[in-house]
Amino acid sequence: MKTKKGFMLRSVAGRHVVVAVGKASIEFNGLITLNDTGAYIWEKLSNGITYDELLKDMLSDYEVDEKTAREGIDGFLATAREANLLDED
After folding, report:
1. Segments in 47-88 forming alpha helices (H)
2. Which structural domain, as residue segments, surrounds residue 73?
């Protein structure tokens, strides 16, 4: 699982935003604002990662139980899928 090409995470005025660049900017106008956890997940996805690897990393890097981590990941992925921001090949 990986973020689609043409979308980049940037920090602007202390906020995390995802913007479309290149050809992606023709189809996607605007930006996506992420909190710190969302930016963490985006970074992991931008490098390509499996769900299980992402869950393992979240449990290692955050003080969170598995149920809460899964809910956060699942919510983020559902939103990203709805916006067509993931390559899941």
Report:
1. 51-61, 66-82
2. 2-84
Q: Tokens 């981590």 — which residue?
A: 69
Short-list 89, 49, 5, 83, CA closest to 73: 49
Q: What angle do CA 48, 75, 9 make, to 5 degrees?
A: 45
User: What is the total count of domains within the chain?
Assistant: 1
User: In this structure, how many other beta carbons lie within 10 angstroms of the beta carbon of residue 33?
Assistant: 11
pLDDT digits 0-9 by tens, 37-66: 999 999 999 999 999 999 999 999 999 999
pLDDT at 69 over 80: yes
Partners of residue 32 on adjacent β-strands: 18
User: Whole-model pTM?
Assistant: 0.88
